[in-house]
Amino acid sequence: ERLPLSVHALAAAMSRPHAHRSSTSVGSPLCERLKGGEDEVDVNGTGADESDPLLKSLSMKPEERDCCYEIWLFLQFMQYKFLFLVEIWGVFFLGYYLDVLLDLKMMVTFAQYGDDHFVFATLLGVGIAVLFTLVEMTNWLQPDDPSWMTLVVGFLLPFQLHVFFLCGYSTVQGNPHPLLHSSKLAESAIEGTVSALVQTYAMISRNMAWEDLQVGLISVSTSFISITWAFLQFDRREKGMAGLPGVAEGADPMLAVVALFRLAEVTSRVVSLGLFTVAIRNQPIPGYEDYLPSGLGNKGGCCVLVFDFLIMVLMIGYWQGVKRSNFKNLAHVFPSLVAFINPILLSENAFTIPVKAYYGLRVVELGGMVILALYLECPAHFDAHSFDAQELLRCGVDGLGQKFDDDGIFLWLAATSTAVMVMLVLLIRFKLGASNVLLVDQEMFASHAFSESEAFLCKKLLKVGRDVPVRASCSEFHNHAGNIIRQRCRAVQAAIEDFRAKQGKEHAQPRGGAVQPAPTSAGVVEQWRVEQVKVREMKKREKSSAADALLALIHVSFNLCLFLKAGQNDKSPSTIVQVGDSGAQEPLLCQDPGSCSGTTARDEFLLEEGGRTRATVAQQYVDVLTLINECLQKETGDPRCLRLLEKEEVCLELLKILPSWEIVETTGPLTEEKELAMQLFECKCRLAVNVMRAGWARGRAFSDIAHRFHKAFDAKTATQVQDFVPDVKDTYVDPHDWVLRLQTMALTEMFDAIPQDLRTREELEKLSRPVDHPDLFRPEVEIRAVMDGATSVMESRGTPVKCTLKCPASSAQATKTLHTVLSSFTDDLLLKPHFWEKSEVQKSLEFLISDGEVWQLTSMSFKLMPDGEVQFWTPTDHRELKAKFLSTGADEQLQSQVDLRDAIFTFGLSQVKEVETPSQLAAGTPDQWVAYDTNMLKLLASWVDSTIEAMMPQEIDGPQQGIAKKAKAKFQEFRETVETQAMAKITEQVAKLESFRRNTADPDDCACLSAFRKAPETQTEEDRKTFKDQHFNCLEQYEDVHERYRLHLEDRLKGMFQWSSKVTNHVENQARDLATALKELRAGVRDYWAALESEVTTQAKKQQEEAQDKQMAAQDAAKAAERQKLATEEEIQTLRAQCDTERQDNAK
Q1: Beta-carbon contacts of residue 22 (< 8 Å; ≥ 6 apart)
Q2: Which letter does DSSP use for residue 515 in this model?
Q3: In angstroms, rounded to a whole number, what is the distance separating the alpha carbons of residues 567 and 615?
Q4: Torsion over CA of 618, 624, 625 and 626, rounded to 10 degrees?
Q5: What confidence score (pLDDT) does residue 41 get?
Q6: What is the pLDDT of residue 519?
Q7: Is-contact 247 237, C-beta < 8 A?
């Protein structure tokens, strides 16, 4: 009945919020973990304080402003405009066109001296810069740029007037256009370098007039400054190199040292090449006079550059290509001919070769150039038998002095710049100390996916070193990485809560309040203030949105993938992926046994110091994947988060952070680390499903990514799963079956995500796929894995289990634990914890909970004291469940009704099936008819006979056809079982509804007419009317229940079982019979009361006739009596008259 399985923090699910629980996660285990850390950062993950002082000041209300505020605002406006105009017209415009005009003046000078080849070389540099700018236009143009602006820039580009236009356009727009930076870079790095080389050599090789020499020196100086400015950007945090930010930030004094160093480096390189070319010009080479009578001519500097090019190709190819498999950095060979193409403040070699190797080569090269110049000038003094250094030096100085008699300034520049370069590089690298930007900049981890060079720096810092300095940096970076991940998780958690809080508000205001537009008559300063407020609030809202927070978390997880995966037992070869243009090809593990020395990934990349263990790192990995999955839910997630998966580079980043199969290896005791690994496996399944759902919406264009994810998912059959998780016999809730069912449902949902027109073997084989990637849903792998998992799903249906909760000895902790467990039950006692509570519930109950398996609380027993009596209890609803043990005090603090210390609770759970019959029926209850989308139902809906046949290759005989037959037979057996049970339940529900009809609305059996039916003849007219109203009310109640069940049949059950003709026909028949029964009931009720009213009418008529007869008889009797009375009176009168007559006669 129960497997003793201790599961700690297992599988964060994405259950929907329930009505009886709040959707906030404050105080949840996940939120508590995210609160920890050595650094306290803002919840939005911006790296700075959430409150912006300048924004707060700019957003002051008009009534709060005074004269001082207006002055401050004006000064802020003037400072902004001044710096903006200096940047546009001082740096870009003046710096660009001053260099261009000086180059034009030098070309005119060259033409006057007849040096057409110098003119051509300068024009070649200008042309290359123009082509570079033209190519970069596609990368730097903004989406909101008008088409006419692009046309004008393209037209003015060959005439070098595009910078003037862009400066004017940027001034009007109020922001520097990104194309200005590209143009300045092209002018500095390309045109400036070519001009400096050509003009320096021209001034050294030719005796120019002093006026022309002055212009040349100014032109060369501006070129040197432009090149220095370009190389200086490598070490600036705001610019950087190839996406890697620089170490120095803002007005760092180190930038001044770097600028002086770069200026000396460029000057030394360019001037030394010019001096060397002139020194060996037309000097014959001893032994080669017949082949090269003029020696190298005026190509000495070019020969040095060619030699340097070959050396750089070999060295960069070795350090970047052979050692790192990053041959893209060979593109830095050409600029490396002039200067060191790597941030000089960066301690590591990111792009080319180590700093010691580069400048060591420069010193050797300079020495070789000097020796070669002396050798060609005085070859006789290099005789080994008569070598005299003093005589050689005198000869060389005399010979070279004649060539450089008027070039003393260049000799001085070469010597001084070389000495300054050597001193500064030693000062920067050894005295001031270079650092690693990954240790000082945390924004770079969330801004983009690391390139190969950045990934190398990260990997080198993560890899545990043996010497103390390296280990100190490694320890610092491990803490840094953990804090960055925690910070981004906190940002996503806050964004999720913020999004869900706003979902219920129709008119939600954006953060920071709405900004009123400035009136058209406002001044320039006021318009600038309003614009600044808009821009800053827009940036603030973007940083706090769920989509931006999620993208930042994905970048961080991708960049720190080695750190996260070091916390798991991942020994599998990594999947190399290409991410955008950067194409991060960093193997997760060392593949060379000789260099690895038998270590695993976690031995190389996990530093267990400062309380950091594999479990804590794995828990961070779980939190990351949990939050990513929570954002990518289609039901409750932000739609903007789902749109992120439309980008291929985002999908490839998620592919790299996908856990591998080795994480679920539990061959030994089930430790906390292995329990977390199982949780990672569930996160992996959910992540793969979410990506497939969103990706296949793009159609065939998603096929390449789909093949990559299927290969990384690496489905396994039941036999293969046993190699990682042993199977426990006679139970279906052990880790082996749990993993198998989880994989099966993930494969099923991934299959359902494929467009309907592609769900055939022929269509899937036509899809494009990467090299060495198998087809999708192979019969012998994925289909067989689904079959194995379907067997486990079928066998686990209706399985009862018992889960035990042992409360801690602390009263407060016991109350909190019990509250967490009881809150995971819904109103109908279904076990559905929130995603942030699921791991804690599973740990407390020692029970695995997975999506699709619905467990209902059926019984409960508890023992409050260790020696107390076991009490049994069957709860009926969630409120009763919590009220029996917990209450809320006056201060809204959670309290326990009983002593929960060391209490033991046993929960009896039963897995519900597809169709369940309610215990009782009542009118006005909308959700009493329930049906559950179980895993078995999803499997049968997806893998019908036609689907299995379509996924098999068209072979008459073969092993794959055998798989198809077994799959069809197995699913046919499952289908018949589920159909039989479902139809039986539907029949049972109809019978229950029929019983409810008899007890509620049937005139012959309903309870509301029981008293009336006993003595209807004794009831008065008023009583009959009262009973009639009650009866019709009961009929309305039954009609309400009947209508809800009819909708349940036609809308819910018919849709659930649309794959089954048996069940749908049964549903239609039952619905038709119910409709007929309802018509008969209504007719019977009408006939009942009509007959009753007819009988009453007949009796009343008879009574009326009898009354009329009695009345007429009474009238007749009265008339007879009247007549008799009248007759009597007449007779009396007659007798009186006779008596009077007789009396008179007698008197007479």
Answers
A1: none
A2: P
A3: 7
A4: 100
A5: 38
A6: 42
A7: yes
Give the whole-angstrom CA distance, residue 194 versus residue 132.
14
Distance CA 766, CA 289 (A): 67
Question: Which residues make Cβ contacts (< 8 Å) with residue 383, sequence separation at least 6?
Answer: none
- CB proximity list for 899: less than 8 A, separation 6 or greater: 811, 864, 865
**845 touches 805 (CB < 8 A):** yes
Strand pairing partners for 894?
888
Rounded to the nearest 10 degrees, the angle between the axes of helix 95-112 and helix 162-173 is: 170
pLDDT of the residue at 789: 86
Q: Which of 234, 125, 189, 205 is nearest to 337 (CA)?
A: 189
pTM: 0.75
Q: Which amino acid is at 235?
A: D
Q: What is the pLDDT of residue 955?
A: 55
The 10 Å Cβ neighbour count of residue 1078 is 18
Cα 684 from chain centroid (whole Å): 13
How many CB atoms sit inside 10 A of residue 1082's CB? 13
In whole angstroms, what is the distance from residue 354 CA to residue 106 CA?
37
Distance CA 560, CA 584 (A): 12
| Paired tokens of 1116 | 């007749």
CB-based contact 469:610 (threshold 8 Å):
no
Q: Contact, 85 vs 153, CB < 8 A?
A: no
Question: CB within 8 A of 366, min separation 6: which ones?
Answer: 272, 418
> What's the pLDDT score for residue 385?
53
Rounded to 5, what percent of the chain is helix, strand, coil?
65, 5, 30
**Angle between helices 735-753 and 672-695 in degrees, nearest 10:** 10
pLDDT on residue 417: 92
Residues 986, 474: Cα–Cα separation, whole Å: 64
In this prediction, the residues of the chain whose per-residue pLDDT falls under 50 are 1-27, 37-51, 468, 506-521, 569-602, 610, 956
CA angle at 680 for the pair 678 and 681, rounded to the nearest 5°: 65
Helix (H) or strand (E) segment spanning residue 245: none
Show the CA angle centred on residue 330, arms to residues 327 and 332, nearest 5°.
140
Distance CA 911, CA 855 (A): 4
Instruction: Give first-to-last CA distance, the chain, whole Å.
Output: 138
**Dist CA 552 CA 550 (whole Å):** 5
Residues 6+ apart with CB under 8 A from 601: 562, 565, 566, 570, 571, 588, 589
CA distance 1023 to 670: 73
Q: Reduced to 3 states, what is the DSSP secondary structure of residue 757? A: helix
Identify any residues that bridge with 803 across adjacent strands, giving them in sequence order: 907
Q: pLDDT at position 927, please?
A: 65
Radius of gyration, alpha carbons of the chain: 46
H-only helix segments in 632-783: 639-643, 648-656, 672-695, 703-713, 718-721, 735-753, 761-766
Minimal CA–CA distance to 182: which of 193, 166, 196? 166
Strand partners, 236: 248
Taking the C-alpha atoms of residue 974 and residue 744, their distance in angstroms, rounded to an integer, is 15
Q: What are phi and psi of 572, to 5 degrees?
A: -85, 155
Q: List the Cα angle 754/757/763 in 5-degree steps.
A: 85
Question: How long, in residues, is the chain?
Answer: 1148
pLDDT at residue number 541: 52
Dihedral sign, CA of 153, 155, 158, 162?
Answer: negative
Distances (CA, A) of 300 to 204, 267, 941: 14, 18, 78
CB 870 within 8 A of CB 862: yes
DSSP string for residues in 807-840: --SSHHHHHHHHHHHHHTB-TT-BB---TTTHHH
Distance CA 744, CA 907 (A): 28
